[in-house]
Amino acid sequence: MKKVFVLGISILFLWSCNNTTEKSTEKQATENHEEHQHDESSEAIELNNGEKWLVNEEMKPFVMKGEELVNSYIQNNQADYKALAQQLKEQNDQLIRSCTMGGKSHDELHKWLHPHLEIVKALEDERDATKANETVLQLQHSYQQYHQYFN
Predict the structure, then answer these.
(1) Strand, coil or helix: 150
(2) 54 pLDDT exceeds 60?
(3) Packing angle between helix 103-125 and helix 129-149, nearest 10 degrees?
(4) What SS3 state is found at 48?
(5) DSSP one-letter code for 38
(6) pTM given for the model
């Protein structure tokens, strides 16, 4: 079930990122789909010649809001991790819908986003509060990783 969810989100992400005003050919869509078939969670994110990758301005608010939600949850010792997971899922959905990136920067962002989505899904599915808190810390680390590689 988890793989189906991740595949669905990945397809949605790819579709929205490639949904630009320019019409792409079916061959390009097939190439993009094949390019994203490998397990991206095992790939290390690369810097852009030693510099952070630029993220489109319309996408940044959704990353920042997600990070704000996680940090607030931790700082305020909140306990409703299911609500946090739902809020993060909504931010990620908006992030994916707002994607207009392409090329190498898009590929590198996807290397961050795919595992991030899996962590949010794990939080959503968690039944144990102690494990949920560990997952929230993983999310905090994920946002730190985002800042390490992206502007």
Answers:
(1) strand
(2) yes
(3) 170
(4) strand
(5) S
(6) 0.74
